[in-house]
Automatic annotation (TrEMBL):
The keyword Transmembrane helix applies. Gene3D superfamilies: 2-enoyl-CoA Hydratase, Chain A, domain 1 (3.90.226.10), 6.20.330.10. It comes from Massilia niabensis. Signal peptide: none annotated. Belongs to the peptidase S49 family. It holds the Pfam family Peptidase_S49. Keywords: Hydrolase, Membrane, Protease, Serine protease, Transmembrane, Transmembrane helix. InterPro entries: ClpP/crotonase-like_dom_sf, Peptidase_S49, S49_SppA_C. Residues 145-287 form the Peptidase S49 domain. The chain crosses the membrane at residues 46-64. This is S49 family peptidase.
C-alpha cells in the first residue's frame, strides 16, 4: 500500500495530504541552509576585499609619503631630523636606500635651517656606511650654508660613528657609548665537531680559493692573511673618514683607532665628539629653530606585513647559515 494513502474510517483509502511532508521539510531546510551559507560566504568575501583594499590604500599612502596638506605646503624655518636606529645594514632605518632620500629631501627643503642626524647604532655594514658618508659629503658641498649635526642617543659605535664623523659637529650624552673605530669579520669553525660526529665535508669548487673561509673546512694561512688584508684596508678607509671629519679636534692616541669605545664624556675629551646635547637642545640653542620636522623614511605597511609573516626572518636565517662572511663595523 502506498505511503501516501490513508483509511478514511469508512473503508475507503484516500490521498493523505500530510504524507511526505518530512521529505519536503528536509529539502526546504537544505535549500535554506545552502542559501544562508552562500550569503555568509558572500559577506565574508566582501569583507576581505574591503580589508585588502584598505590595506592597499594605506600602504600606498605610506609608501608615497602623501599628506593632506600636499608637498607645496610651507613648513617654515625648522630643524630637519633624520633618525638611524639599529644596525647599519641593507634594510631598516640604517640602509643607504632609506637614509639618502631623507638626506636629500632635508637638505633641499628651503625651510630647513640645519639637518640633525640622530644615531643610535652599534654599527654594521661598511658599504652602507660608506655610501651614506659619500652622500653627506656631496650634500655638504652642494649646501655649504646648511650644517649637519649628529646627536647620539645610547650608542654610536663603529659603522654608526663612521657616519657621524662626516658631520659638522657631534653631540652626545655623558653616558653615551662612542667610538669602536675598527673592523671585524666573524665566523665559526666546525671541523673538530664534524670529526667527532663522523661528518665528512664534500666541497667542490671551480677556482682554488672559491671555498674562502668556509666554516666547515680547515682555515688556511693564505685565506686568513687575505682576510686580514681586507680588514686592514677597510680599517684605513674608516680612519681616513674620521681624521678628515674631525680634523684638528681629534686628539689621537695609540688607542683611538684600536676598536675601543668610550663614554660620551670621554669622547668629548678625546675629540671624538664636540659637546653634550639632545635633538631639542641642538635645535633650540645651536640651530635656533625649535620646530623639528622628521624626514626619516619610515618603513611602509607592506614591508611590516611581510616581516610579520616571517619573510625577512627567513631570509636572514638563510644568510646566517649559507651566506658569505662579510666585514662589519660593529
Amino acid at each position: 500500500m502506498s505511503d501516501n494513502l490513508r483509511n478514511d474510517g469508512e473503508g475507503r483509502f484516500v490521498s493523505d495530504p500530510t504524507a511526505g511532508n518530512w521529505e519536503r521539510d528536509t529539502l526546504e531546510k537544505l535549500v535554506f541552509a545552502t542559501i544562508k551559507e552562500r550569503r555568509a560566504a558572500r559577506r565574508w568575501s566582501i569583507f576581505f576585499r574591503l580589508a585588502f583594499l584598505t590595506i592597499l590604500v594605506v600602504g600606498l599612502w605610506t609608501y608615497f609619503d602623501l599628506s593632506f596638506g600636499g608637498e607645496d605646503e610651507s613648513l617654515g624655518r625648522h630643524t630637519a631630523l633624520i633618525e638611524i636606529n639599529g644596525e647599519i645594514e641593507a634594510e631598516g632605518s640604517g640602509a643607504a636606500d632609506n637614509v639618502i632620500p631623507s638626506l636629500n629631501k632635508a637638505f633641499s627643503d628651503a625651510g630647513s635651517a640645519a639637518v640633525v642626524l640622530r644615531i643610535d647604532s652599534p654599527g654594521g655594514s661598511p658599504v652602507q656606511a660608506g655610501i651614506i658618508v659619500d652622500e653627506i659629503l656631496r650634500l655638504k658641498r652642494g649646501y655649504p650654508d646648511k650644517p649637519l649635526y649628529v646627536v647620539v642617543d645610547e650608542i654610536c659605535a663603529s659603522g654608526g660613528y663612521y657616519i657621524a664623523a662626516a658631520a659638522d659637529k657631534i653631540y652626545v650624552n655623558k653616558a653615551s657609548i662612542v667610538g669602536s673605530v675598527g673592523v671585524l669579520m666573524d665566523s665559526f669553525g666546525f671541523t673538530g665537531t664534524m670529526d667527532k660526529l663522523g661528518v665528512e665535508r664534500r666541497l667542490l669548487t671551480a677556482g682554488a680559493n672559491k671555498g674562502f673561509l668556509d666554516p666547515f673546512s680547515p682555515q688556511s694561512e693564505k685565506h686568513r692573511a687575505h682576510a686580514q688584508e681586507m680588514l686592514n684596508d677597510i680599517h684605513q678607509q674608516f680612519i681616513s673618514v674620521v681624521r678628515s671629519g674631525r680634523g684638528t679636534r681629534l686628539k689621537e692616541t695609540p688607542e683611538t683607532f684600536s676598536g675601543l669605545y668610550w663614554t660620551g664624556a670621554k669622547a668629548v675629551e678625546m675629540g671624538l665628539a664636540d659637546g653634550f646635547g639632545t635633538v631639542d637642545t641642538v635645535a633650540r640653542d645651536i640651530v635656533k629653530a625649535e620646530d623639528i620636522v622628521d624626514y626619516t623614511a619610515h618603513e611602509g605597511l607592506p614591508e611590516r606585513v611581510l616581516k610579520k609573516f616571517g619573510a625577512s626572518v627567513g631570509a636572514g636565517a638563510v644568510k646566517a647559515v649559507a651566506g658569505p662572511v662579510l666585514p662589519k663595523l660593529n
